Amino acid sequence: MTAQHPAAAWLGDKQGAMLALIEELVNIDSGSYDKPGVDAVGERLRRFLNEQGIPTVTIPNQRHGDVLKAQVAGGGGSNKPIVLMGHRDTVFPKGEAGRRPFRVENGRAYGPGVCDMKGGLVLNAFVLAAYQHCGGAPAPLVGLFTSDEEIGSPDCRPVIEETARDARAVFNSEPGRPSGNIVTGRKGGVFMALETYGKAAHSGGNYAEGRSAILELAHKTIALQALTDLERGITVNVGLVSGGQSVNTVAPHAEAQIDLRYIRPEDRAEAMSRIEAIVAGSTVAGVTARLEIRGEFHPLVQDEGGRALFDVYRDAMAGVGLAVEGEFAGGCADSGFTASVGCPTLCAVGPVGGNAHSPEEWLAVDSLVPRAQGMALAIAALR
């Protein structure tokens, strides 16, 4: 079927071009808070898409990178678009691309964000280009290139949800698993900041007059971590702590950042209620606390529509000679937002990769073309 399908056939000799564009994107610093860098990645993608004759629109964001949208006309009878989604931001600091520029060794590409998810962005762009050149899309194709996923998509979430509500299906090109599988289920996550407020006092001269915010935070940390229930897939992690004024002062202030993960949507309310009760209580008299939610992802739950979309995708991948299964992932992604508004969603359909968020992050070069062809065939089957 691959050779017979025009869009998939068009992609057959594009590995070198795909890799060249990935190199350009990887060598641009684009941490979530680096708006100029994230927008530079968007501009390079916009230029590529426009060169293929694909129109784009930019939705501005003041805090983080802008949203880039592209559309390829569909020739079928459906007006509900098929969305190819990916984020342009990475977790790496400014200067990382200069320290670790793109390189290829032994069939693997390396560099900051190479699989998470600049490889997926390029895959999406080339699939859009294939249908633009060859025609035959059964519905309009929308490329959605967002900018702040690594920090919970605070600005892009409304655009993602609005796009998905009107869509027939979403392919989120996060990196494929090292096994070659894709992700059909993910945890939800809530990312919070906890602050405790005490009273400063000299630790030698008038210790008893102080109220230690650090001591109160320590008690709360133990209680929060104890909410973890591995059997239910609920974890609470206090990942960052700071506070105090000086070594010889009873700490007037302390803060922590908290990561809650859960599987079932109904588990969120229970966990948050218990977290809020811990925050409201006090072990150290006179110390108060405040909790703020700074970011959140919904879980990706595979419903009937998601299962049907996976069956289509698995058959399409078989058409390029690859056996693909679905896996569950503890990490969060924008796919949870699209699934939560009722749109059938698959995640991790990008090129195969691993060790994301680390200096050893890699992408399997020989997965680029077959994963793109498989997506093209899956799109063709959504008639």
UniProtKB/TrEMBL annotation:
Q: Which SUPFAM superfamilies match?
A: Bacterial exopeptidase dimerisation domain, Zn-dependent exopeptidases
Superkingdom is Bacteria
| Entry keyword set | Hydrolase, Metal-binding
Recall the GO molecular function terms of this protein's record.
Answer: hydrolase activity; metal ion binding
Q: Which residues form the active site?
A: D89, E149 (proton acceptor)
| InterPro entries xrefs | Bact_exopeptidase_dim_dom, Pept_M20_glutamate_carboxypep, Peptidase_M20, Peptidase_M20_dimer, Peptidase_M20A
All copies of the Peptidase M20 dimerisation domain together span 184-280
Signal peptide location: none
Which protein is depicted?
A: M20 family metallopeptidase
